[in-house]
Amino acid sequence: MLERRRLFALLTLAPAVLLADRALAADAASFVRQVGDQLVNIINGSGTMVDKRGQIRAIIDRNVDVDGIARFCLGRFWRVATPQQQKDYLTLFHQVMVNSITGHLGEYKGVKYTLGRVAPHDDTVWVQTTIVRPENPPADVEWVIGAVDGQQKIEDLVVEGTSLRLTQRSDYASYLQHNSDNVQSLIDAMRRMLARQN
Amino acid sequence: MSRRLSPFALLFALICLVPLIAACTPRPPADDKEALADYTQTNDPLEPTNRFFYKVNDQLDAVTLKPAAEAYRYVLPDGARESVHNMLVNLNDPTVFFNDVVEAEPRRAGDTLMRFLINSTIGVGGFFDVAKHWGYPEHDADFGMTLGLYGVPPGPYLFIPILGPSDPRDLIGFGVDIADWPFTWMVNGTTVYALEWAYYGLNAVDVRSRVLDSLDQVEKTALDPYATIRSLYRQRRESQIEAIRNDHRATVPAWFPAPEKATD
């Protein structure tokens, strides 16, 4: 009896779940289209590089789960960092993210992109895009969209099969390994690196 | 009759000497579990040697291949570089075909065969990728991926002089692909020999010119470019193998009157 009730519940729920999945996928695609258009318009628009970076940063802060990615990238060292170090690290990481994403889109005018297939992956949705920038072969970029506190956020970019956050995490892990696991020296290095770039 | 070694065969022979001078990273103590987990996950026991070769390569690159690639990109317009790239890809198609067959991927093998036939003729020696527009898209295949597809693990990371990032599986694949490339066996005349060197040289410049901006970005933003490239290489290889695994296209081409709907 219980079995049948469970089966019945499953059967009634299944279409709802499927529909919800499809709605989520469509949502994810339009979300990527919206964020992508904003980014491309800024890069292709007029204005100085400093202005553009400021505008891009606002979009990234709004639509990318920067804090989540930051914590993931620090891995086990997040726990050993002091509250002040965590705060400094997060602040710097926001800028790292801006440079990293603009790096993949290119900083020069003429960038274009097309949306491709949308596919669910565990509890995220992957939206495929092809990014074409001048002087470069087309790049396949997957946008990993998840829900953070009920809001759609970009959780990762997978460029030609390489995950942005995994790569960043191994960079930091290796730096820490060669600098006696000292989080402060990582923060200092990030600061120096950003000062050189901007 | 004396045979000259093909350039890549020569390089491969030299590479096999590398392990003789390898130095090792000390394994972390067993009680430091997290450090040990990092160590096994990174799987780079020859890190000091690898880093040494990375540095040598990086410095060589800065005065040779990189300026050559920049000049190449500066001198030739986009379309011309694309044509040269197509031609190089076409010359490599016999190797791709061999691997498609060994991978037991008939659809991919068919694509490669048609690409080679169409592009070599109508595409004027491969300069124009006509086949792409006729429903035969380009894909990658090499023996390292083939081994990976059959479940061979990559093994420890290796940074090889001149060749760059690799691992034992891909290095073996590299050796096999030299052997399965028909042009390797044509090095008898001086002209063919010179052409082969020209092919390898042009290929290197083409590949380098296509990653100029991406590698600049790594150098500019990574705290440890060596580790970043290691991670990028591993992920990229894994994703290429995954792409073959996920290629579920039906074996008959789309235009063939299929008995049932085969696309998903």
General description of the model:
- The complex is a heterodimer of chains A (198) and B (264).
- Chain A has 198 residues and is of the alpha+beta class.
- Chain A has one domain (2-197): Tgt2/MlaC (Nuclear Transport Factor 2, Chain: A), CATH 3.10.450.
- In chain A, 62% of the residues lie in helices and 20% in strands.
- Chain A contains seven helices and five strands, in the order αααααβββββαα.
- Chain A has helices at residues 2-44, 49-63, 66-74, 77-80, 83-105, 164-177, 183-197; strands spanning 112-121, 124-132, 139-148, 151-159, 162-163.
- In chain A, helix 5 (83-105) packs parallel to helix 7.
- With 264 residues, chain B is mainly alpha-helical.
- Chain B has twelve helices and two strands.
- In chain B, strands 1-2 form a two-stranded antiparallel ribbon.
- In chain B, a hairpin with a 3-residue loop joins strand 1 (158-160) and strand 2 (164-166).
- Chain A binds chain B through residues 76, 96, 99-100, 103-104, 106, 133-137, 160-163, 166-167, 170-175, 177-178, 186, 189-190, 193, 197, and chain B through 34-35, 38, 42, 73, 78, 210, 213-214, 217, 220-224, 226-228, 230-232, 235-236, 238-240, 242-243.
Would you kindly provide a brief summary of this structure?
Chain A is of the alpha+beta class. Chain A is built from seven helices and five strands.
